[in-house]
Amino acid sequence: MQGDDTDAAGASVESVATVEQRFRELFDLSSDGICVHQDGAIVFANATAVRWMGVPGSEDLIGRRVADFIPADILGKVESRLSGLHHDGDNAPPTEVSMSRSRGAMRDVEATSTRIHWHGRPAVVTYFRDLTKSRAADLLRYQAALLDHVSDGVVGLSPEGTVSTWNAAAEKIYGRTAQEVRGRPVHEAVGADVDADRLIDTLGVLHATHVAADGSPRSIGLTAARTASGYVLICADMTALRRAERHFEAVVTALDAGVVVFHPDGSAMSANPAAQRILATVRPVDAPFASNIPLVDADGRALPVTEQPVWQVAHSGDPQVDRVVGVDCEDGSRVWLSMSTRMLSPDDPLRSPVVATFVDITAQKMAHERAEHEAAHDVLTGLLNRSGAFARIAASLRPDAVQRLSAVLFIDLDDLKSVNDSFGHDAGDAVLVTASARMKDALRESDLIARLAGDEFVVLLMQGIEQEDLDRLIDRLHRAATDPIPYHDFEITVTASIGVTLVGLNDMRDALELLRAADEAMYNAKASGRGRTRYAV
């Protein structure tokens, strides 16, 4: 009986060993990695786990710490996950982790752990499902979806130049489906010859014209790169952009306004026909457009470079609108322009060109100046009139005046009424014209003379003058009036009464007060005898 018991026990041990061996064989056939660990040490690993860990055999894993194969940054999370397994059958839900291999490589896996008993002691069995292939498949699906959502055509080519891939954008650009072009030479797919190797060597974008399925041309920006399976072409459809550029060029060419684009350094990059036409008199027609043409402001003052519109916009970024500038021509005339300048690319001010648009307003400027002149000048004599005289006096009294008023002379031609009565108003007008011209010639270059009304004139001395020089100037004015004036077969003689008021540096009188003082002095001169001069007290 005892022998029978011994035999039975031996058979039982052998049976357990056999079962365990069969389970090992089954585990080794699993495509998932299976690992049993007790107290943090590996006690069993199937063939798949051994292969994934990158070791020669299972004996190289037995006894190793599980922590050796888990990256340090997630080790705490894994240990916390396993610490919740208290009873046999407790499961930790599937979790994606990165597993370290013996040579430092990483493998993404989905781990599921269960509490078990292993040789009579608590243990944990973990099943590892490799995510590498599913991740790769996901990536391929993502890349395929991405290619179908980009706006550029992406065309894959074999080494022989036949189409292998053709995304949705390429279908839209060329009007050909992927099924229609796959396996065909690329020139049939895009309607033009494409040399991928040459394109790669250019290291840039090639602008080419391709032909769509309906025969319409396509302006394409083409780049290429080599891949493991051949080439990939990136086809950017620039047809709409090129059409817009052509329309823009046609509009700019047809404009009556001049358009000039300046480089940030101030040199001209392009000028439309209107700009060439407007500025044709400024420079020889066959000369290149110059950006350093001298300009003057609306008042005729020469503008230094730092005050010119293009320079100011290039350095400040602030646009200028309808600024009036003048350009002197080779023939001595002046062209007036209304100019607007702004940055072409305000988002990139350091590299942005400056575009200037302008129209010729010479006729309007001259008409305006003519109207201003007529409003401020006497029609008969061409001298300043009363309003013009008041404006000049007021300007000369400002603190920032360039020329400071030093004296006001009020002049009245005596006996002009008798000339009109004796010889007629035409004779009186002739006397006024001749006498005013002579008096103007008697003045210094800086001085002004105006006709206020009838036979009354006012002289404005616009610079300081010594008394001796003032006396001589007044004598010249008297002679200008008294010298005989020829009229037909007669000679007419008149005299002038002159009133003078001097203007000091700190004089607080305004234009009206100065004229009143000079007028009063003139009447005092007339009262003392014709052809006399009196000073205001």
UniProtKB/TrEMBL annotation:
GO terms for molecular function: diguanylate cyclase activity. Its EC number is 2.7.7.65. It is an enzyme of class 2 (transferase). Gene3D superfamilies: 3.30.70.270, PAS domain (3.30.450.20). Residues 146-184 form the PAS domain. Keywords: Nucleotidyltransferase, Transferase. Residues 404-537 form the GGDEF domain. InterPro entries: Biofilm_reg_signaling (IPR052155), GGDEF_dom (IPR000160), Nucleotide_cyclase (IPR029787), PAS (IPR000014), PAS-like_dom_sf (IPR035965), PAS_4 (IPR013656), Rev_trsase/Diguanyl_cyclase (IPR043128). NCBIfam families: GGDEF, sensory_box. This is Diguanylate cyclase DosC. It comes from Mycolicibacterium obuense.
